[in-house]
Amino acid sequence: MAELSNAPKPASEDLVDIYRRMLRIERNEDAVLASMRRGRLTMPYYSARGQEVIPSTISHFLNDEDQICTIYRGIQDMVAKGIPLKPLWAELAGRVDGTCKGKGGAMHMTHPETGIMVTTGIVGSSMPIANGLGWAAKLDGSKRVVIAYFGDGASNIGAFHESLNMASLWKLPVIFVCANNRFAEHTRYEDGTAVDQISKRAVGYNMPGFTVDGNDPDDMFAHASAAIQRARAGEGPTLLECMTFRFRGHVIGDDDKYMTKEEKEAAMAADPLPALRARLVSEGHATEEELTNMQEKIEKEVEEARDFGLESELPSLDELRRDVFAEEIPA
Amino acid sequence: MSEMVKMHAVQAINAALHEAMAADDKVLVLGEDVGDKEGGGITGITSGLSTKFGDDRVKSTPIAEQAIMGAAIGAAMAGYKVVAEIMMMNFTTVAMDMIVNHAAKLRFMSGGQTSVPIVIRTLTGAGWQTAGQHSDFLEGWFAHVAGIKVVCPAFPADYKGLMLSCIQDPDPCIFVEAGGTFFIPNDVPDDQGPIPLGKANVVQEGTDVTIVTWSAQTIRTMAAAEAIAEAGISAEIIDLRTISPWDKETVLASVEKTGRLLVAHEASRNFGPGGEIAATVSEELFGKLKAPVKRLGGPTCAVPFAKNLETAFIVQPEDIVAAVKEIMA
Ligand SMILES: Cc1ncc(C[n+]2csc(CCOP(=O)(O)OP(=O)(O)O)c2C)c(N)n1
User: Fold this and answer.
1) What does the alpha-carbon distance between residue A168 and residue B64 come to, in Å, rounded to a whole number?
2) In Å, how far are A39, A256, A303, A305 from A32, measured between CA atoms?
3) A216/A199 Cα distance (integer angstroms)
4) Which is the closest atom of ligand 1 to the Cα of A155?
5) From atom 21 of ligand 1, which residue's Cα is the shortest distance away?
6) B145 touches chain A (CB under 8 A)
7) Confidence band (pLDDT; 50, 70, 90) for A2?
8) Residue A331: predicted pLDDT
């Protein structure tokens, strides 16, 4: 992985915060899957279990003003950024109290208050829009930064190339964060991508590009910090290729036949979540008791959000005519 | 009283952009070659803007339609009003994802939390031998998508007034500029303000037959008007100006009066916007029609290059005269 000189190292509170975000993502997902099994949530769900370090570390450096554009596999990005869980759950359930009144659903979630501007189901489309938000940030004279999350497969779409070129040309405060989980749907990385590291593509756009261990909080911390600082200082975009693995297939229900048993088992054995927990305790950043309390608190929050979301009403049929335009459209 | 100024469409759009940018510093312009260094656009529509308002607000872009549209959407979501140029309407196909899946739907999918106030300016029109990939009128495609307004002016005053409205509109608008309407000078009030979207213009009143048309086809329909009158037929000519939402009220009131309807557009007839208008009129006024509704549009082929073929593709004034006579027979 790329070395950064003078790489900043996370302090105890940084690591604990990153862990808290990861745990919130994981506990939330666990409850989502349980609700899906019970038939209480019916939707295609794209798990990012195993990829939590990436958004958790990035979000550690973001504030409410900062914005993200993410993808169908993006609930972890939203939870890491701080989306409130109640409206999140109501949206997953397609209910009126959802972030989007149940009209966006899991794949198209928006919550501007916490900087979640776009969630897209179209591979590659988070990047062009992030550029526009970055352009606006620059015009506003603001220091806010914009994160474009996407997968390795998305880096083969035209929108990626157009966006990196434009962001570099215009020195936009955008960080392109690729979660390289080594699969695009069922296609192996090397069968779909002509270059061995996506970060190398940054060279062609005159932008710094790094391949980072996306499961290692230290490596992520150093690179996220540098990229965000660079963007805030007006020095332009960075491409971060964050190496990771998704444990639960492309979409829930997918049978993983395209992975080897060995690679999946090896990845799961290196699960970054329990690894960080063990580290927090062994290095003395937190005690077992503190982490157990943290978990209980998060679980309670998730349960409340779940109950709130599942008990929320369905949106009224009038909503079909509302929000198409600013003015309601005639029947 | 406002004074009349003679100008053509290019000048009218340029004037609208100047006024809008001066009035509101949230108005931005971007697109290929739009800056003055690059000539102020291929037809000069954005000429003078970057010199006056700066390269931050008027940005020439790489040839990257997805990136242009995405940047427009993102900046619009962040509170700007963005006029994005896609050089030719056929190139919107390259940015269709951004337009259809994102710009048009973000308000709805976000439950009204975000909006995308952009204007997509784009040039098209048959008649210049630009053939298959530079001449398509795709207004029907966009009209079929909920959440985007489709504006197709014909006269300089409308170009100015409708552009001002599009910029003010809180939602995405596609503003179709037709080459065939461009260099015809016409009267524009010196204080021409916004013209409401979704309102048709009755360019000629009549009692026997209603002709609904828009964009360059309006110019050709006006060219047919004299021959129609000479045949003793009183035609009411409606320039729709906005295709989506279209002004049903004006059209229905007119057909109720005349009992006959011809829709004439430049896009291919099959599955074209004429079908929607004809169907609506048939549904609403079935018992009042004195003749079957008629549609004129291009054949189902790409716009051809050869001059004779291109001329045959375009609905000509004499085709309109013949169709009107047929309806009256
Ligand atoms: C433009 C487009 N083409 C195809 C798809 C179908 N599809 C959905 S996810 C996906 C794989 C994308 O892989 P990657 O970018 O690596 O992200 P990951 O799912 O691994 O997070 C594909 C092909 C789509 N949603 N959009």
Assistant:
1) 14
2) 11, 20, 10, 11
3) 17
4) 15
5) A151
6) no
7) low
8) 54
Mutation target to probe the A interface, by most A beta carbons within 10 A, among B106, B116, B169 is B106
Contact across the interface for B107 and A110, Cβ inside 8 Å: no
B66 and A158 within 8 Å at the Cβ level: the answer is yes
8 Å CB contact between A212 and A242:
yes
* CA–CA gap between residue A34 and residue A302 (Å, rounded): 12
Q: Angle, to 10 degrees, between the axis of helix B317-328 and the axis of helix B216-230? A: 50
Helix-helix angle B248-258:B273-285, to 10 degrees: 60
CB contacts < 8 A, A to B, total 156
For chain A, how far is it from start to end, CA to CA, in angstroms?
Answer: 57
Angle between helices A12-37 and A288-311 (to 10 degrees): 40
What residue has token string 């291929």? B42
Non-local (6+) Cβ contacts of B302 within 8 A are B131, B132, B133, B136
| Of residues B233, B223, B254, the one with CA closest to residue B154 | B223
For residues A60 and A18, is the Cβ–Cβ distance under 8 A?
A: yes
Which one of A162, A185, A190 would you pick to mutate in the ligand 1 pocket, going by the greatest count of ligand atoms within 8 A of its CB? Answer: A185
Whether B115 and A139 lie within 8 Å, measured CB to CB: no
| ipTM computed for the complex | 0.87
Non-local (6+) Cβ contacts of B81 within 8 A are: B20, B24, B26, B27, B28, B117, B118, B119, B167, B168
Distances (CA, A) of A186 to A192, A200, A251, A255: 10, 23, 10, 10
- Distance CA(B119)–CA(B85), nearest Å, equals 8
CA A193 – CA A195 distance, rounded (Å): 6
* Residues A56-67, mean pLDDT to the nearest whole number: 97
Q: Is B59 on the interface with A (CB under 8 A)?
A: yes
Q: Which amino acid is at A114?
A: T
pLDDT at A197 over 90: yes
The phi-psi region of residue B69 (left if phi > 0; otherwise alpha if psi is between -120 and 50; otherwise beta) is alpha
Residue (of B310, B262, B318) closest to B129 by Cα position: B310
Residue B185 DSSP label: -
What residues of B are annotated to the active site?
A: 65, 134
The set of protein residues with a Cβ atom below 6 angstroms from ligand 1 is A 73, 121-123, 150-154, 179, 181, 183-185, 250
